[in-house]
Amino acid sequence: MKRPVLSGILTVIALLAVVLPASADPLSVFVSVLPQKFFVEAIGGPSLTVHVMVPPGASPATYEPKPQQMVELSGAALYFSIGVPFEKAWMKRLSSANASLKIVATDEGTEKRAMAAHHHDGDDGHDHHHDHGLDPHIWLSPRSVLTQGRVILRALVAADPERASLYRENYRRFAASVVALDLELMERLSVLPEGTPFMVFHPSWGYFADDYGLEQLPIEVEGKEPKAGELTALVERAKAEKIGVIFVQPQFSRKAAEALARSAGAAVEILDPLAEDWDENLRRVAEALVVSASRRQ
């Protein structure tokens, strides 16, 4: 008596396998940096296989894709760009590796800030301000990430309409979690006075600082370490601002930051703007900034 039922179930399974073969296969997509993987996987879920172009420890300013990555890229449906420097040199070549690859600019609709600049006194006795293009670190602002998430959602729905409802539901959950994180960070950082400065080696944290009313003081700009005169000016600034901690990131040399810290009597700590656990990382950053402010000289 049970055999007809079992036979019917097997028939349904076989029909589904014929009718929906494509929807059973994960969509292969690429992102430039690890935090994007967090966003794309949150919205796409297990329906995606997400490849990251810039691996942990590498710099998105100078990275060159490996041959194996180009092979994997040939089977991808989407590439989610974000405006980091290596994309300018490589995007055309990445596109040529896969004629059907769709490039999705996740920085679309995001107003970018000028890349943070350092100040120094020139030989003429005047204060000189160096500005170097637009800041690509938009993934470090939860408010900007909401915009990026909408771009990701639209691209996934267009590329894989059969899963549109799943992507939309995932995005709703993702957006709610980002808003909750933003409120949490606002509350945590509200203990700091408006405009509280913090010093970093590489100016990655400008959007984060803007969101929460802080001031980022960079040591270097566009990979250039400060000259002797500039380092002296930075030491004086660190002392004047009572900076107790100088933040560095693992993708860059710590030499200049450590020299400045020794002269200013400050500690050196690591903040990684490219950490994959995006939400927990921003919580760590907020806590580090609050603790560092308590150590101001």
Structure description:
There is one protein chain. This protein is an alpha/beta fold and 297 residues long. It is built from 10 helices and 10 strands. Strands 2-1-3-4 form a 4-stranded parallel sheet, with helices on one face. The chain has a 4-stranded parallel sheet with strand order 8-7-9-10, with helices on both faces. The protein is globular and about 60 Å long.
* Count of individual beta strands: 10
How many DSSP H or I helices?
Answer: 10
- First CA to last CA: what distance? 83 Å
Biggest pleated-sheet summary: 4 strands, parallel
Sequence of secondary-structure elements: HEHEHEHEEEHHEHEHEHEH
Mean pLDDT: 86
Q: In which order are the strands of the major sheet placed?
A: 2-1-3-4
Large-scale geometry: globular
Classify the beta-strand content into a percent band: 5-15%
Instruction: Please state the structural category.
Output: alpha/beta
Query: pLDDT under 50 segments (min length 5)?
Result: 1-22, 118-131
Throw out a few tags for this protein.
about 300 residues; disordered N terminus; 10 helices; 4-stranded parallel sheet; single chain; alpha/beta
Short description:
With 297 residues, this protein is of the alpha/beta class.
Mind sketching the topology for me?
Elements: H1 2-19, E1 27-31, H2 34-44, E2 48-52, H3 67-73, E3 78-81, H4 85-96, E4 102-105, E5 119-121, E6 127-129, H5 142-159, H6 164-189, E7 196-200, H7 206-211, E8 214-218, H8 228-240, E9 245-248, H9 255-264, E10 267-270, H10 278-294
Parallel strand pairs: 1-2, 1-3, 3-4, 7-8, 7-9, 9-10
Antiparallel strand pairs: 5-6
